[in-house]
Fold:
Amino acid sequence: MKRMKRGMSGKPGKGRERIGAPVRRIFAPMGWLRVLSKRLVSGLWPMRPARAALAGVLALSGATAGAGEEHPLLFGWAGYDAKELYPDYVKKYGELFRFTAWGDEEEAVTKVKSGFKADVMMPCNYKLSKWQATGRIADIDVSRLANWPKVMDSLKGLEGVMRDGKVVWIPTSWGNTSVVYRTDLAPEYQDNETWNILWDPKYKGRVATFDALIDAVVVSGLMAGNPDMFDYTDPAHLATAREKMRELVGQVRFFSNDPTTLEQAIASGEVVAATAWNESVVRLKKQGLPVKFMRPKEGMMTWVCGLSVMEGTEHTDKVYEMIDAMLSKESRAWEINHFGYGAATREGFDAVDEETLRKLNLSRDPEAFLDAGIFQRPIKNEKGLQNMFDEVKAGL
Structure:
């Protein structure tokens, strides 16, 4: 669902941000939008790129899909109105619920604060504190969810799942942020996978990263040796991250929030390594390119997205049916196969063949895979980190 993915992305770097074709066409005729939407739900362009392009287009257009007022409204990431994600709901009612896409979570939280009414939202774990601060997130009675016991314990224990002893967020899927690199151009990293490739002087001008706090800037904190890569309340930790970020700015060819731009640069060899999400690696491999998605020795980052219920819903029964449908084995397996993301249930993995998991760089043992990574969390002193990022990109 990371969909841009999640959160404060950072302003485009001066002279560096390269906008991909989908973004440039953001005000194109709706005919183009329909074609792009079909590509998304068919699996040709999975969820996270939609954050950078289609999600924003849908949000600007105010696109809403689904049935009438007798059904609940899901407010979330573009592409998550695919009927295959809610098989039991569609089987029972013969149609899908209503759906409205957002551009990113900052925009979505602001909209909810301003009074926008939905029934279900799709927050990701690193933004849960902001969603809860709206005061509009309801408790969830998990006894009404037949599939809740199937959610992996490691995800049930994440910060933000519970509030005052009550569940308020249901994890559904997860993905990773790491480095995709050309094994033919940087072969020495095959046996030494590390985030340090982005700082390697040998590849100055041939690396790229997301223009985002949660997917790029915090890595500077990690590689600077800060005790918590998501906490910048201590000025000393912000200062060490600044120095590491300044080094990175001197290394990168460009910053971009458009995965397609990053993928094209990797494919052409213009860039040797770049930060990426799971599905970028899948698409690059389909082109026959010698690429690998790193499992850095420092840890790859993991984000988790899920569902929350808005206070005052008038569709309580159908809301629970919607959530349970998304947790079903069929739904979770479909998302793995078509979006390339991990399922919150082991059952979803069990329904996917070994070869597909291998191609997607996912493990048959998802809990061990998750334990080896770094779960993204809300950034402490996010504003300070954003200001630092803007200043460093501006050469200050």
Summary: Residues 73-173+302-375 form a domain with the D-Maltodextrin-Binding Protein; domain 2 fold (CATH 3.40.190.10).
